[in-house]
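FORM 7B: Structural annotation worksheet

SECTION A. Query
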Amino acid sequence: MNHNYLQDLGVKLLCTGLKDINCKLEILSLKNNCITEGGCHVLAAALNSNPSNLTELDLSRNQIGDSGVTEISSLLRNSQTLQILRLSDCSITEEGYKALSSALRSNPSHLIELDLTGNDPGESGVKQLSDLLQDPNYQLKTLRFLGPAADEGCQYVTGIVGKNPLLLRELDLSGHKLGDTGVNQISALLQDKHCTLNTLNLCGCSITEKQCLILTSALKSNPSHLRKLNLSGNELLGDSGVKHLSDLLMNTQFKLEKLHLCGCSITEKQCLILTSALKSNPSHLRELDLSCNELLGDSGVKHLSDLLMNTQFKLEKLDLCGCRFTEKQCLILTSALKSNPSHLRELNLGWNQIKNTGLNHLCDVLKDSRCKLERLRLSDCSITEEGYKALSSALRSNPSHLIELDLTGNDPGESGVKQLSDLLQDPNYQLKTLRFLGPAADEGCQYVTGIVGKNPLLLRELDLSGHKLGDTGVNQISALLQDKHCTLNTLNLCGCSITEKQCLILTSALKSNPSHLRKLNLSGNELLGDSGVKHLSDLLMNTQFKLEKLHLCGCSITEKQCLILTSALKSNPSHLRELDLSCNELLGDSGVKHLSDLLMNTQFKLEKLDLCGCRFTEKQCLILTSALKSNPSHLRELNLGWNQIKNTGLNHLCDVLKDSRCKLERLSLYYCDITDVSSLTQSLTNTKALQFLKELDLRYNKIGDSKQKLIDVLRDSNCKLSL
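SECTION B. Predicted structure
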C-alpha cells in the first residue's frame, strides 16, 4: 500500500481489519503515506491486539517523528514475530533512537533487521543501537543507517582507519592521498546525519580546489557536529577552495571551533576571503592556525588584524608561526590585539623575523592589564639580549597570567636567560614553563644538570672533569653547547676520555656558538689524535672564537699535532693569553720550533705558557728562548719544570731576562737538573727583570754554593724564591 496518501485516517480504517482475529497479515508496507504519530498510535494499538503473524513492517518516508517511533516501540516490546522494521526518512532524532534501543533491549529475541537511513541520530543514537549488534543475546543482524553512497564511504573509511566512522568522534585521514574517488566517498559519508564527527583531520591529503568544493558541500548539508577541521599541508586549495571553505564558515549552523590551515599557501586575497567569512559568523571559532603561510603579506595581516579587533570574535589560540612576519606586520597585529586583548590565551609567532622592535610592540600588549595571554611562543625570532630585557620588564608589570614562554633559537646575550629565569622563582608570577632550548639541547641540559646539580644555562663555568661521558654524553653536551642560550665562559673536560670522534662533535658545536667561551680545558684526554687536534685547530681559526685559555696538559700532543695547532693560532693570534702544553713528551724539536715561531709573532700576546714535563732538551730550550728574545714583552708566566734544561738551558733563559722588554712575573724551573745559578743571579742584578719578577721556583735542583748569592739578591725584592 505504498505511496497511497492514506494519512492517519486511512490507517485508522486499515486498522479495523488488522484487529480482526482472522487477519493473518505477515507483511505490511505503508511507505510514503503521510502518516504521523497519530497514525502510529492507532497502528501500534491494532497490531498489539493481534500481534501473532506480522513479520515485516515498513513505515519509511512518513514523518512519524520521535513520538511515532515511541508508539511503534510498544509493538517491539510485545511482538513475538516481527523480524524486519523499516523506518528510513521518518524524521527520527536521538530521542527516538533511545526509545527503539530500550524497546529492543526489553524484547531481544526476534528482530533481525532495522533500517533507519535518512534520520538524525544525534550524538549517541548510533552507539545506542550499534551496541545491540555486538551482544549475543540479540538476534539483530542488520542495522542500516546509511544510504548506498554513504555506506560505500563508510566502508572506504573503515578500510583506512580500521574502525566504523559512525562510532568515531575523531577521524584522522592525515597523509592519505585520497584522490577524487576517495573525497567523493568520504563526502557522501560526511553529509549523512548518522556521521557525527567532532574532528576531521585531512592534513597532507593533497586536497584540490575541486575536492574542497565537494567536501565543503557535504559539510554544509550536515553542519551541526564538526568542531575541528584540519586542512593543513594542502597547498592546492587555491582561491576557489578557500572561497568554498569560507562559504561554509558563514553558515550560522556551522559552529566550528578549531580551524587549521597550516602550510596551505594562503595568499593576501585568500586571507581577505577567509577573514570576511569569519567576520560574518564570528562567535564560534576559538583556534586558528595559519602557520607556514608565507604569502599573507601586509594586507593579509591587516585583514586578520581587523578580524581580531571585532569584539564578537573571541579567538583564544592563534598560530602564525613561519609566516615571514616583518616588524611592520608585527606592529599591525599587536595594534589589533591591544584593542581587543582579553580573549587570546595562546599566540605563536615563532620563526618570524620580528626582532627586538616587533617584540617591543608585543610587550605593549603584555603590559595591558586586560591581556590574559597564557602561552607565548617566540622561537627563532632573532631576538637578542635587549628583547629579553624588554620582555622581562613587560611581564613584571603584568605578572598574573603567562604560564608558558618559548624563546628557543634566539640569542639572549650574557644576561637574557637570568633576566627571565628569575621570574620562575618568584611566587608572584604564574610562569611555570620557560623554554629556551630545543628538544636535543634540553635533553643535554637535563643531562648536565644531573651531573653538576645546577642549570647550566645559569652557569658561566661548567666543570665535568673526571666524568667518562661516552658518545651519548658528548652528543647531549654538544647539543647544549651549540644553543645560544648556553653562554659558558669556562668548559672543563679534563680527564673525560674524549676521543677523536667526540672531539669533532664538541668542536662542531662550539663553532655554531663560538662567541662566549674563554677557557677550554681538554687536559688528560690522551685519545684526541691527529683528527681531534685538527678539529680543535679549525675551531681556533674561527675569528668569532675568542678563546683566552687553552689547556692541553697530558694529551699526547705530537710534533705533527703541534704544527697543526700552532698554524691555527698563527691565523687567529690575538686572543689567546694562556696555553698549557705540559706533560706532552712527544713535542720534539720540530714541535718546539713551530711553537717558537708562534711566540715570535708580535700579534700573539701570550701571557702564560706551561711546558712542564715536556722532556725539553738544552737545544729545545735554546730554540724557545730565541723566540722569546724576539718578542718578550707579553709573557708573564713561564713553567719549564720537569725538563732537563740544565745550566746551559738556564743560561739561554737568562738572555731573555736581561732584555729590558721582559716583564716575566713567574718563572718555574723545578726538577730541571740545574746546579749553578750564577748567570741567573747576574741577570737579575744588572737588569730591570727583578722589578717584575714575583715568583721564582727552583725546587728540586742540586744547586751548589751559587744559590747564596741569589738569595742575597732577592732578599729585599718582592720576589718569592722557592728552593
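SECTION C. Observations
The chain has four domains: 7-144, 167-421, 437-553+567-576+596-604, 607-723. The mean pLDDT is 93.

SECTION D. Sign-off
Analyst initials: ____
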